[in-house]
Structures are given as structure tokens and as C-alpha cells.
Amino acid sequence: MKLPPLTLGALVGLSAAALLAIPAADALRDLRAARAERATLAQIAADPSPSRAIVIDGDATSARDAGTAADRLAVRVRAEATKAGLLVEAVTPAPSAGLARVRVTVSGKEDAVIGFADTLERARPLARFAAWQITAKGGTVTLSGEVVSPWQ
């Protein structure tokens, strides 16, 4: 029995459709999952930023604004440097978005300068040197840099 060409073409087409149905279903499932994930990420991005603090209690300088936070950090840096027996050449608050920032230049004996930097970074509230440079001149060491601290 010989099948007519139209019937033969229909059988081949149905076979091909049956074979391609499985990958097509997988692709549709993946597309649905990607759209759901994209919608979730868009919703997260549209929500306001989280209201919780980014540092734990006691690690941030308390202040009502960035300027006050920078001033408090400057006072703290000056006090630590004086306590370490260093000559405070400059401590100036610097503008910054989000962090209290202070430019500092202190000089003294090498052990005192290193001890000052170590004490400042280990103490609470958090303070870190974002950039620093140490130069030696005779028996004196000069530390210049920027100290940053989170505030809330």
C-alpha cells in the first residue's frame, strides 16, 4: 500500500512537531521563570532603601547630618593624636557623600604615629584610613591621609 504524498507529509510534520514539543515546553518554562525573576528584581529595585542601619549599634558616629559627623570625627582624631603625643598639623573635615571624612596630618616619633593609627582603627565607633602616606624626615615621621567613619 502506497501512501499519498499529502498523508506522508502530514505524518512527517506531526512527527517533527511531536519531537520539537519537548524543547519548546522547556523554553517556555525557562521564559516564564525569567520573567518572574525580572518582575521580582524590578519590585525590589522600586522599593525604598532599607531602613535598618548598615553597621551594628555603637560602630557608627551619632550625628544629625554629615557635617556634624565630620566635625565629631575631627575632634576624635585630634584627641587621639594629642593623647599619643603627636604634633597635630592639620585636621579638617572634608565633604563626602555618606561617610564622615576628615583630612589629617600628624607628626611625631615613628612608634607614636603607628600606635595612633592602630588605636584609631581599632576603637569604636569605626574609623578607617581611606588613604594615607607616611614620610620620614630626620627622626620625625609624618602621617597624612583621610579618615572615614560611618554615621547615623
SSE map:
Blueprint (H helix, E strand, L loop, with lengths): L4 H42 L19 H18 L3 E8 L4 E10 L1 H13 L5 E10 L2 E11 L2
Antiparallel strand pairs: 1-2, 2-4, 3-4
Give an overview of the whole structure.
The chain has a four-stranded antiparallel beta sheet, covered by helices on one side. The mean pLDDT is 88. It is rod-shaped and about 110 Å long. 48% of the residues lie in helices and 26% in strands. The protein has three helices and four strands, in the order H-H-E-E-H-E-E. The chain has helices at residues 5-46, 66-83, 110-122; strands at residues 87-94, 99-108, 128-137, 140-150. The protein is α+β, with helices and mostly antiparallel strands and 152 residues long.
